[in-house]
Amino acid sequence: MRAYTQSVIRRHPRLSTYGAAVVVVVIANLVALPLDHWLGYARVSMIFLAAVLISAVKLGSGPAYLASILGFFSYNFYLVEPQFTLGIESEDYLILLVFIAVAMLTGGLAGRVRDEASRSLNRARTTSVLFQAGRDFAALGDEAPIAERLVEGLAEAAQGEAVLLIDGRVRQSQSVMTLEPALIEALEACQTTGVLAPGPDGWRLRALLAEGRRLGAAAWRPTIVTIEEADQSRLIHVLIDMGTTAIARSRLSQAWAEIEARERTESLRNALLSSISHDLRTPLAAILASASSLRTFRGVFEPEVQDDLLDTITEETERLNAFVGNLLSMTRLEATALSPQSAAFDVSEALDRTLRRYERRKGSRQLAMTPSAHPLIALGDPILFEQVLGNVLDNALRFSPEDGVVTIAARYEGNVLAIDVMDQGSGVPENELELIFNKFYRSSTTRETLQGAGLGLSIVRGLMEAMGGSAVARLGEQGRGLIVRLQLPRGDS
Amino acid sequence: MSAGAHLLLVDDEPQILRSLRPALMAAGYGVATAETGAGALSYLAGEPCDLVILDLGLPDMDGKDVITRLREWSEIPVIVLSARNLVEEKIAALDLGADDFVHKPFAVDELLARVRATLRGRDLRLAGRASFRSAELEVNFAARRAYIQGEEVRLTPREYDLVRTLARHSGRVVTHKQIIAAVWGPDASVDAQFVRVLVAQLRQKLEENPSAPRILLTETGVGYRLAGED
Question: Which of B19, B104, B109 sits opposite A281 (nearest CB)?
Fold first, then answer.
C-alpha cells in the first residue's frame, strides 16, 4: 500500500508546502520569544514579517497567506500585551493592523512573483522538452526508435516511469523496476476502450490515437513532484500526441516503401515479359512476313529478293531456335537436370563453326579470330560450348558500335584453355562485372531496347560451370569494351 | 490512289525491314525506312508521305510518343506494329490517333490489306463524301439516314451517331473512348457498358443475325469497326 499513500501525497502537492509554512512560523515564534524581552514586542514583529517573506519566496503565495495569518495570531497571542491571550490593548491595534496589512501585501506580492517564476520555468522546460522530442521524432525515421524515444520522453516528462503498449508489444522506460501484469491488462483495456483512465497503483493511462485509429496505449506514473499537475499533464498529452503521430507517419512511409518495392518488381516483370515476347516474336514476324511475301509475290520478285527472303527465314529460324535453346537450358540448369558430356574436343573447330554461323548476322561489324598454330583441345560438351559461344558473341555484337570489331582469342594457360571474347562497346561499370551473369540482370547503363531478356550471360555461366569450367568478365584496355573469358579444363594431356 | 502511295516503314530490327520492304514494293508502294523515332519524325517533316507503318518498340523513344508528336501537326495515317500484344497498348495507340494496329507476327497479306483499307479511308475522309455504301449498308450523312439492302432503317439519334462515326472510319477500329466522345460528347463520363448496349441495339436493326455480326464487327477489348466499303 506504500505506493498508494505516496500517490495521495502526490495528488495534493500544496499540502506539504503549507506544512512547511507552519514550520517556518513556528521557528519564527521560537526566535521571537527570547528576543521579545530585549527588543520589545513592536520590533519583534519584523521576525514574523521575515517568516512571511521566506514562505512567500520559497513556497509560493498560498503558504505566504497562511504564514501571515498564523504569524498574526501567534504574534498577538505570545507577544502582544496582554501576553498569552488574544486580547489587545488599544494602542497595539495599530501595530497589529500594520503587521497584518504588510504581511499580506508583501507575502502576496513575493509569492506571486515566485509563482510566476516557477510557472515560466515550467513553461520553458515544457517547450524545450517538446522541441527536443519533436526534433528527435523527425530524425528517427523508424517506428521502433520513435517508440523508445517516446517512452523515455514520457518518463522524463512525468518525472517517473512510463510504459507503452503498441501492437501488443510492451516497451518500458529504464526507470520501470517491475512490470505488474495488472498494468498490462489495464493498458490493453485502455487500448480497446480508448478512454482516459486512472490505472492501478497511481498509474495514469491513455490510448494512442492517430488518424482515427488506435495504435496502442501509454501509461505513466510520477515518482517525485515538482511541477504543477495541470502543466505536467498537458506536457505528457502533447508528447504522446507527437509520438503517436510520428509513429503513424513512420508506418505510412514504411507502407509507401513497400508499395514502391512492389511496383518496381511489377515493372521489372513487365519489362522481362515484354522483352521475352520481343525476342520470340521478332524472328517469328520476320519469318512469317518473308514466307507470306514469297507466297504472294513469288512471280514478281527478282531471284535475289527471293534468296534474301529465304535467307531471312533460315537465319531467323536459327535465332529463334537459339533463343528457345536458351530458355530450355535455363529451365534445365534450374532443375539441375543438365548432364553435360565430358569429352576432349577441338575448340578451334567449334569457334570456326560458330563464326561461320554468325557471318551474316554480324552486319557491318567484324569478327576477328586470332588463329592458333596447333589444335586447342579442351574437356567439355562441344554442343553446349557452341551454345555458350553463341550467347557470348550475340552479346558482344549487340553492344558493339557500327563497324566495331569483336576479337576472339584462344590459348592454353597452365592446365586450362582460355577463350577471350573482346568487344569495342562501352563496357559496363566496374561494379556490374559480376552482376551481368545474374539471370534477368539488366545493366543500368544500357539503352532499354538494346537489352534482351537478360538470359544469355546467365546461361553462359551456368553451362560453363556445369562443364567444369568458368566464365568471368573484365573491362578491356583503359576500361573500354568488355572481355568475357571462358575457361575449360585442358584435354590434351 | 492506293497504288503508288508512299510509305514510311519504321522498325529498328533490320530483319523486319528486310522481310517487309520487297512485298510492299511489289504491291506498288514507294517505301522509305527509318530505324528510330527521331529519324521517322524528321523524315516526315521533310518528305511527302501517305502512310506510316510504325513499330512501337523503338530504340530512342516509345512509338506512342512518336504518334503524339506526329499528331501535333500531321493527319497522316499510322498503322502500328507491336510484338507486345497488350490490349491496353493497342487502345492507347488508337486513342492517340493511330489508324490501325497489327500484331507481330503477321502475314504480309494482312498488312497489305490494312494498308489498303487505311489509305482508302483517308481518301474518303479527304473527299468529304456525303454517303457511305457497302454491300448491305448505306449511310446518307446529309439526310442522316441509314439503309439496309436499300430499305431505310429507323434509328434513334444515338444509334445514328454511332453508325455515322463507324462509317466515317470504315475499315478501321474505333475505340470505346472515341465512340463515347462522338456519341455522348467529348466530356461525357459514360461506361463502356453503354457502348455495348447501344451496339447490341444497332445490331438488332442492321444485322441479319445479331449474334453473328457481319457489318458491325467487334475488336475484343478495344472497340468496333464497320466492315469496309467495296
Answer: B104
Domain residues for the domain of B175 are 130-226
DSSP-based three-state secondary structure for A120: helix
B77: enclosing H helix or E strand: none
**Distance (Å, whole) CA B139 – CA B209:** 20
Cell readout for A21 is 509554512
Q: What confidence score (pLDDT) does residue B65 get? A: 92
The CATH code for residues A336-489 is 3.30.565.10
Residues on chain B touching A278 (C-beta within 8 angstroms): 57, 83-84
Considering only CB atoms, which chain B residues are within 8 Å of A309? 18-19, 22
Indicate whether B148 and B81 sit together in one domain: no
How many folded domains does chain B comprise?
Answer: 2
Q: Are A251 and A143 in contact (CB under 8 A)?
A: yes
Give the residue among A138, A72, A66 at the shortest CA–CA distance from A99.
A72
Owner of C-alpha cell 567444369: A468
A300 grid coordinates: 514478281
Q: Which CATH superfamily is A140-255 part of?
A: GAF domain (3.30.450.40)
Q: Is the pLDDT of residue B112 over 90?
A: yes
Top-confidence range, A285-294, B137-146, B215-224: A285-294
Beta strand pairing call for A169-172 and A343-346? unpaired
Q: Residues B190-203: pLDDT tens digits?
A: 888 889 999 999 99
CA distance B61 to chain A (A): 9
Which chain B residue's Cα is nearest to A287? B19
Substitution target from A267, A280, A284, A290 for chain B, most B beta carbons within 10 A = A290
Question: Cα–Cα distance between B208 and B4 in angstroms, integer?
Answer: 38
Considering the domain boundaries, does residue B1 fall inside one?
no
The confidence band for A333, taking pLDDT boundaries of 50, 70 and 90, is confident
Please check whether residues B23 and B63 belong to one and the same domain.
Answer: yes
Q: Are A49 and A106 in contact (CB under 8 A)?
A: yes
Report the alpha-carbon distance of residue A291 to residue A301 in Å, rounded: 13
Domain ranges of chain A: 2-119, 140-255, 273-332, 336-489
pLDDT of residue A488: 92
Q: Which CATH class is domain A273-332?
A: mainly alpha
**Residue A358: per-residue pLDDT:** 82
Interface predicted TM-score of the whole assembly (ipTM), two decimals: 0.77
Question: Which of A101-110, A333-342, A424-433, B75-84 is predicted with the least confidence, judged by mean pLDDT?
Answer: A333-342
Which grid cell is B228? 469496309
Query: Which residue from A484, A486, A311, A338 is spatially nearest to A413, judged by alpha carbons?
Result: A486
Q: Which of B126, B159, B176 is the last residue of a domain?
A: B126
| Contact status, residue A391 vs residue A326, Cβ threshold 8 Å | yes
